[in-house]
Design brief:
By secondary structure, this protein is mostly helical. The protein has a two-stranded antiparallel ribbon with strand order 1-2. The longest helix is centred in the middle third of the chain and has 29 residues.
Amino acid sequence: DDAAYEAQFNAAVAAEERIEPRDWMPDAYRASLVRQIAQHAHSEIIGMQPEANWITRAPSLRRKAILMAKVQDEAGHGLYLYSAAETLGTSRDELLDRLHAGRQKYSSIFNYPTLSWADVGAIGWLVDGAAITNQVPLCRCSYGPYARAMVRICKEESFHQRQGYELLLALSKGTEAQHAMAQDAVNRWWWPSLMMFGPPDDESAHSAQSMAWRIKRHSNDELRQRFVDICVPQAESLGLTLPDPDLAWDEERGHYAFGPIDWDEFREVLRGNGPCNEQRINQRRTAHEEGAWVREAATAYAAKQAERSRH
Ligand code: ACO
């Protein structure tokens, strides 16, 4: 009966064993994983848009090749994650329908525009840096398929973070105009990157339960603080500043203190009122509609192959 199964499930989680697709799990655990993994998958594919915006205008062949590879990696991450969600019994089609209908979220960060080439660097350094900080602990998530997908994703994110850092460093050490462009990009991406970690702990609806289930290993605020601590010395090496006058080493806590985050802005972006929400979701829907013939052709081809192998 369910009580016995639940006790077994709780014992497995407590013993740091992985929960696998065929194992019994509470309905709420399954639903919360689908929610988080789907939101994560959607973020990966929507996240292709702001950077793809610069592929045709990359300043050299080398930069263009790197950026194309990076954007393709994001598509791959989306696929690993939709596959992980499918092991919980929800199809990719269904999840995409929910995204297109506005019933599932994707990360707030991808609703900001990429105004200059330096934004590609700032996204790599800050957005992918924040993503790694948040995702490395997910490699130890209690749900096996999600944890395993995260291992590869984190390795690739780590490459993305370095390419962003290297790009920004080149600009920062370049001409005065290039340096100013890099600084402007960092100024615009810093605060939205801090918002990626989610609402403050006392407003985070899911944290307590997700931590008890060992889906999450650290709270939103803990990871945000870790990220700030990592970024401050990196900004110094880049020769750039972070746009926060309150940023200061707090000897007592052993962390950098930082200024207040504009949570009204975060809530507005989540409500669909960020600078690019409409553009992002429209472009996603259009890409899906325009790709219908590819899905139909692939299905027809697979049916034909299956038919042939029967004879
Ligand atoms: N953007 C959009 N929505 C967010 C964000 C954000 N930055 N942060 C939190 N939310 C949403 C949550 O999804 C939740 O909404 P829901 O109830 O409709 O699902 C609500 O705000 C409340 O937040 P929490 O209770 O704190 O949610 P949760 O415990 O799931 O923590 C977090 C949020 C940290 C984002 C977690 O889901 C997570 O670690 N996800 C995996 C990583 C991820 O999705 N990264 C995407 C961006 S990185 C990239 O793609 C490069």
